[in-house]
Amino acid sequence: MKENVSNPIYSITPFTLLDYAHKSACILWFAGCNMRCLYCYNPEIVLGKGAISFEKALTFLHSRKNLLDAVVFSGGECLLHKNCIQLITEVKKMGFLVKIDTNGSRPEVLQQLLEKKLIDYVALDFKAMPVHFEKITQSNLFLPFEKSLRLLVENGLPFEVRTTVHSDLIDKNHMQAMIQYLEQQNYQGNYYIQHFVNGATTLEKLGYSVKELEKENLSTARIKVHFRG
């Protein structure tokens, strides 16, 4: 995948209270992704090109100093982009908290960010178990995801795991296997299940998704399952 180095950012959401718990934030949406998840409702970001340079993003962020608590790096896949560590370094220098939304496919970049203490919170997307991962993501990136999960568990940085669910792709049995896998990886805490966005334009044409999982008690002693959307 070629990245747009000069203009890596697709768009900026100037204000949100939803994407970083208990914090006011803005979101930098990075163009491009190395996965093609069938249910993805941001195809224009994943397949599109960026329109905003790092320099313009920094100018915007300077105007938000002392007004916002945090900056969320999302996409697409924000950690794919050249100089993302440099940009995050500059954002931290401004005094913002930094949250990363990632599919976990770049553990080497995540490791550098952790070692340099440049991030404050991570939302890690758990797409599927290996048997379903390639079909759902159109990629073979489960092992990098697994390495990222282990890095976060071992580091102790606050983070959450989340999964987007479509009833044709992931059912109760799949979900239980994923929860068991997280326990085996020594993850404990919140696990967020996000429902497929019905009616959205997605990479693959998917029909209505039935919200059957909400009827199930999927939480365990170590993992609390929450439903979003």
From TrEMBL:
GO MF annotation terms: catalytic activity; iron-sulfur cluster binding; metal ion binding
InterPro entries linked: Aldolase_TIM, NrdG2, Radical_SAM_PqqE_MftC-like, rSAM, rSAM_sf
Cofactor(s) listed: [4Fe-4S] cluster
Pfam families: Radical_SAM
Domain Radical SAM core per the UniProt entry, residue ranges: 19-229
Keywords: Iron, Iron-sulfur, Metal-binding, S-adenosyl-L-methionine
Domain of life according to the entry: Bacteria
Family matches, as PANTHER family: GLYCYL-RADICAL ENZYME ACTIVATING ENZYME MJ1227-RELATED (PTHR11228:SF27), RADICAL SAM DOMAIN PROTEIN (PTHR11228)
Entry protein name: Anaerobic ribonucleoside-triphosphate reductase activating protein
